[in-house]
Amino acid sequence: SRGVIVNRRTTANLYGYERQVFGKPTVIVGLNSRGDMTEQTATIPTAFPAGTVLRDLTGQKPDVIVSANNE
User: Fold this and answer.
1) Which end of the chain is more exposed for a tag (fewer CB within 10 A), N or C?
2) CA dihedral defined by 62, 31, 43, 37, rounded to 10 degrees?
3) How far is CA 16 from CA 21, 27, 59, in A?
4) What is the C-alpha to C-alpha distance for residues 3 and 24, in angstroms, rounded to an integer?
5) Strand partners, 32
6) Which of 41, 33, 1, 42 lies closest to 20 in space, CA to CA?
7) Positive or negative: CA dihedral 18, 19, 25, 31
8) What is d(CA 30, CA 32) in angstroms, rounded to the nearest whole number?
9) Which residues contact 11 (CB under 8 A, 6 or more apart)?
10) What is the DSSP letter of 62?
11) pLDDT for 26-71, tens place per residue?
């Protein structure tokens, strides 16, 4: 794979990272390890510009828009 992984959120049950290629963001991934099917949400920083629409490719959640402070 190309690019680098930038850790964005690490907790006991949630890991979020962003892949960047040539310094530009390409994807944000969130992994939940609770194991009990409980949904988790988190606000994480990103290199995507404010106003960018991020699509949930699993089809389980609606799109989100990057906020003015890049979260």
Assistant:
1) N
2) 70
3) 17, 11, 18
4) 9
5) 14
6) 1
7) negative
8) 7
9) 42
10) -
11) 999 998 888 887 788 889 999 999 999 999 998 888 999 999 999 8
